[in-house]
Structures are given as structure tokens and as C-alpha cells.
Sequence to fold (348 residues):
Amino acid sequence: MRALRLESWQSTPQLREVPVPEPGPGQVLVQMGGAGACHSDLHLMDEFTDGALPWGPPFTLGHENAGWVHAVGSHVHGLEPGQPVAVVGAWGCGTCPRCLAGLETYCDRPDLAPAPGGGGGLGLDGGMADYLLVPSARHVVPLPEGLAPADAAPLTDAALTPYHAIRRSREKLVPGSLAVVIGVGGLGHLAVQILRATTAAVVVAVDAREAARDLAVRSGADLALAPGDSLVDQIREAGHGFGADVVLDMVGTDQTLQTAAAAARQLADITLVGLGGGTLPYSFFSVPYEVSVQSTYWGNRSELVEVLDLAARGHLRPEVTRFPLDRAGMVYDRLREGAIEGRAVVVA
Ligand code: NAD
Ligand code: ZN
Ligand code: ZN
Fold:
């Protein structure tokens, strides 16, 4: 089968022929219907070196996956060949207290997990291929009717990550509160839609690209702003002069974190999602009183079920550009150039 392989850090991914995996006991082989190209893959490819993570290349890219059950190993019940499924991306050990609580992103025994700290497309083979081997049936979630796998793929990360982040700030997102989304790419446009669907907050989106700001407005943002000298004043104005209750920073550079801190009002949450590598000086007086600064990472299976439900009922509409697997190599070039609106999805 074909697979887009990252063969070493800081190299260009290559389309290769590899054997079709065989599902062992408890495992599921998924015929790929869509694999999203996440900006995290660019960070991985460009910025990491040997030893930086507990896992590394070679592996097949693609950690945002959906498709159809192709074959199941022994002891797998309740899944039928041809059934459309989304793949839960974080693969923990399944038996430690955190995994049992559904928090496989924070498995206590990564040494017992299929890919310590990683997953499919993150150390183990991912979904930019004809087939994906999922190490446990609990990592596949049946798709509700009406969701095509290529459109569902971004829901497993580009929607799940902001959904998890927004849930954590739910108590601050009361009607009339102000939520700011910085960076309206794959994650950001779905963050806007999730805020719209699950809260009555005023939503302000910020992006350097005009096409992304247009997408933000189509996604339900009340206002879409460009970075610049007046940005913080414009955000404050949208918040009745007080500023933002929640800022989701999908970029994470010094500049965007500075904007987040300047735009936040007292008691706000500043949630760092983007891996831009920036830092935010934090001291008692450097941000307004009782502002919480937090990072956030991916989401869990029960949240994915909720995200799929939102999408199946039309509340989430991922903006998807499909690329055939044979041309998958160019997807990351386009993403790097800022030429993708919403999410690029590789289809086998
Ligand atoms: P993307 O490339 O699709 O979107 C990024 C957007 O940010 C683009 O629209 C770009 O124009 C905009 N942007 C860049 N610099 C900007 C600036 N200074 N001001 C305003 N807008 C700016 O990326 P994505 O796939 O949506 O990922 C976003 C970030 O989130 C990446 O850093 C990615 O690695 C990270 N990520 C984190 C998690 C997590 O669990 N924390 C999960 C997935 C992705
Ligand atoms: Zn990702
Ligand atoms: Zn575990």
C-alpha cells in the first residue's frame, strides 16, 4: 500500500510502498477515508531532532484520521467491515487510572502504551496511507450518519483540541462574555464554530491572512481582525471596554501571547494551543489580576463523541480541501505557505 513516510527529522516526507498491516488480537485495520494535515506535523518535521522526544521517525504521517473498518482482529466485537469510523488519536495503555478515566492523552504508564507519549502519525504509523492499523478497538468511534470520513477526519484533532480547551473555560464563557481566537486555520475556524455552537459568547477572531478572516466570519465570528497597532483596542471595544474573558491562542508566538495578555480582562483564561514556541512573562502585575494562563493538549474519546454529534447535526462544518494520497507530499508545502483555508485532508 502507499504511505507518506517521515523517514528522518528535518526531511521532506516521501510517498513509499509498504506492506498492508495485519490486525492482531483486539486491533482494527481501517481503510483510510481522510487524514488531516496538522500544523503540528510542520513543527515536528522542521524543529525536532533525534532524542528530543521518546519516539521518532521513520513513521507514516497523519494523526487526524477517519475511514471505514476494513478488518478486525480476534476478540473485536461490534465493528463491521465497511462501517465508517473516526480514530481517537491518543493511544495510552488503557489500564492506568488516567486511561480508565478516559484521559489517554495523560497515560500514567506510557511505557505500556503502543507509542510512549505518541500515537498513530506521531511515532507509530498514521493515516496518510491506504490503511491504518489501530492498536485497540477502543480507539475507533463509529461515525454518526451523514458524516463522510474525509470531513470527519479534522474533527479528531482540529475540532477536538479546541473543544477540549473551550470546555475547560466553560464557566467563563457566559452569555455576553468575549472569546478571542488568535489564528483561524484548521483549529481556529473550528474553534469559532464550537464557541458559536456551545456558548453565547461574543466571538472575535484574529488572523494575519484575509482569506482566514473571511473564513472566521463564515464560521460565525462576530468580528474578524488583523494583527496591528490597534488590535488590542479593537478587542477591548468588542468586550465593552473590558477585554476578553477567554483567549485561545492557536499560534503561540511571543507576539500573539503578548496580544493575549494585553487583551485579557481580570479573571480571564489565556489558553495556549499553538506550538509557536513563544513565551509570556508572568508575574503578579504582568497580567490582570486572577488571569489563568494554561496550555491545552488534544482531547479524549468522550469529547470526540460530542464533537461528532455536533457535526452530524450541522453545528460544525469543517472547511476541507481534499488532496489525493499520490499528491500528499505537496500538502505540507501548501500549509507552510499559508495557502490552505481550514484543513487540508489527504484522501486515499
Ligand atoms: P494552521 O496553519 O492551519 O493555522 C494557523 C493560522 O494562524 C493561519 O491561518 C495563520 O494565518 C495564522 N497565523 C499565523 N501567525 C499569526 C499571527 N502572528 N497572528 C495571527 N494569525 C496568525 O495551523 P493549525 O493546524 O490550525 O494549528 C495551529 C497551531 O496549533 C499549531 O501551532 C499546531 O502545532 C498547534 N496544535 C496544537 C494542538 C494541541 O493539542 N495543543 C493540537 C493541534 C495543533
Ligand atoms: Zn494535530
Ligand atoms: Zn494509561
User: Anything to note?
Assistant: The chain has a mean pLDDT of 97.
